[in-house]
Amino acid sequence: MERGYTVFKSIDDLVKRASVVVVAITPQVIDSIMHQIRNALSAETVFLSLTAGIDIKWYQERLGKSCKVIRCMPTITAQVGLGAFAVSRAETVSDNDYKEVERFLSSCGIVEEIPESLMCEVVSINGSAPAYFYHMTRVILEEAVYMGFNESSALRLFAQTMKGSAEMLLNSGMSVEILEDKLRLQGGTTLTALDKMDALGFDCCLKEGVKACVSRCKELGKL
């Protein structure tokens, strides 16, 4: 307690004392703890799952049809207070139950409630998306160093540019198309870069990556 948290000796003890139970483990092993959770879960407990691919019906088959299940797809960026949480809830979850979970999640990011039918699809646009940006950054930095830049300097410039671009998308009031068009000046460097990326299949690569991400999420739900 002195450090701000309490350690329990078993899953049963933890679940019995929690109003909201957060489960953040892989789909491959989640079934192995369901019996421990079920034995300790009360009718009022909210079950918040961060496990990709496992649907509400699967949980209610193991925990009871009246179980209050909320599915959540988080992002690693919650670690810096800028998370993006996509959530869907069972019909048994009341508005008050949902508001408590929303309050908890929104302490470190935004919360968007979506239909459960899109919980696998959303992984590709929030849960896995940070890795797209990190991968792109790594490629850009490698090229920057090759051109002669100091890596730390190039990282600050590129990361700040991504941060500012995201802020404009969220708060400028302009659509993504308008923002892009502002930079697509005829004969300019940006248009030349985008045309080259398009010629090499950049858009296709992104779309196929998104499809692969969704497909894998659905596979995990069947394990």
Give a brief rundown of this model.
It is an enzyme of class 1 (oxidoreductase). This is Pyrroline-5-carboxylate reductase. By secondary structure, this protein is an alpha/beta fold.
Your description of this structure?
This is Pyrroline-5-carboxylate reductase. There is one protein chain. The protein is of the alpha/beta class and 223 residues long. The protein has 2 domains: 11-116, 3-Layer(aba) Sandwich (Rossmann fold), CATH 3.40.50.720; 129-220, ProC C-terminal domain-like (ProC C-terminal domain-like fold, Orthogonal Bundle), CATH 1.10.3730.10. It contains 9 helices and 5 strands; from the N terminus they run αβαβαββαβααααα. The chain has helices at residues 11-16, 34-40, 56-63, 95-105, 129-147, 151-171, 176-183, 189-199, 202-220, and strands at residues 20-23, 46-49, 68-73, 83-89, 109-113. Helix 5 crosses helix 6 (151-171). It is elongated, with a radius of gyration of 21 Å. The protein starts with 10 loop residues before the first helix and ends with a helix. The model has no long low-confidence stretch (mean pLDDT 94).
Features:
223 residues, alpha/beta, Rossmann fold, ProC C-terminal domain-like fold, 2 domains, five-stranded mixed sheet, 9 helices, 49% helix, amino-acid biosynthesis, oxidoreductase, NAD(P)-bd_dom_sf, proline biosynthesis
Helix content: 40-55%
Going by helix content, strand content and strand pairing, the class is alpha/beta
The SSE string, one letter per element, is HEHEHEEHEHHHHH
Extract low-pLDDT stretches: none
| Chain-averaged pLDDT | 94
Estimate the global geometry from the Cα principal axes: elongated
Order of the strands making up the biggest sheet: 1-2-3-4-5
The radius of gyration is 21 Å
- The total of helices stands at 9
Question: What is the top-level CATH class of the largest domain?
Answer: Alpha Beta
Q: How many beta strands in the DSSP annotation?
A: 5
Major sheet: size, sense and barrel closure?
Answer: 5 strands, mixed
Distance between the termini: 37 Å
In CATH terms, what is the architecture of the largest domain? 3-Layer(aba) Sandwich
* Number of domain modules: 2
CATH topology of the largest domain: Rossmann fold
State the fourth-level CATH superfamily of the largest domain. Answer: NAD(P)-binding Rossmann-like Domain
Beta-strand residue fraction:
5-15%
Pfam family, one: P5CR_dimer
Protein name: Pyrroline-5-carboxylate reductase
Enzyme class: oxidoreductase
GO molecular function, one term: pyrroline-5-carboxylate reductase activity
